[in-house]
């Protein structure tokens, strides 16, 4: 085989980089997202919890309608980074930041972040990290909400509550996860992409029509 022939055939035999492999820019942006969402959590720990308490007083279990913002990190991470582990990474980091800045739930905040991130992660995995439309975002929010609901059965003692409370709480959490985490997370991703901040990501190139 001539040298020219070898050079022509070499690229075809070399393994292509996996689209699932994390780049340095992925790590940096995921970290920035985690910190930013963690700061949002600090605000929501006050405003969101006040809303949660008011709704729960109105109808026990209906407070779950406020939980969606606490789930948004995993959705944003999955939609923007589009790599395995991104939803878990961002949600867990955000929860850690919230805890370090004085969350009233202390270390339980991190436990929640891990489980909520896994809930969203499983939805993106279900679609093989290939679909990132508003429907998938809403499902990721629901997945995170259901995971949080299951954790609270044991972490918060909700398992001792009646069936009516648990059903109302599950439905309220799921609606909130779909809307406040899923749809709002999708809209935030598109808004960020429109500014050009995500041009190095597929999420940004899709919105701006870049190749």
Descriptive notes:
With about 210 residues, the protein is mostly helical. The chain has one domain (about 25-200). Helices cover about 70% and strands about 0% of the residues. It has helices at about 5-15, 25-60, 70-80, 85-100, 110-125, 135-155, 165-195, 200-210. This is Substrate-specific component YkoE of thiamin-regulated ECF transporter for HydroxyMethylPyrimidine. It comes from Agrococcus casei LMG 22410.
In short:
The protein is an all-alpha fold.
Defining key terms:
mainly alpha, 72% helix, Substrate-specific component YkoE of thiamin-regulated ECF transporter for HydroxyMethylPyrimidine, transmembrane, globular, membrane, single chain, 211 residues
Our count of domains comes out at 1
Work out the radius of gyration: 20 Å
Average pLDDT score = 92
Q: Tell me about the biggest sheet?
A: none
Topology:
Blueprint: H1 3-13, H2 24-58, H3 72-81, H4 86-100, H5 108-126, H6 134-155, H7 163-194, H8 202-208
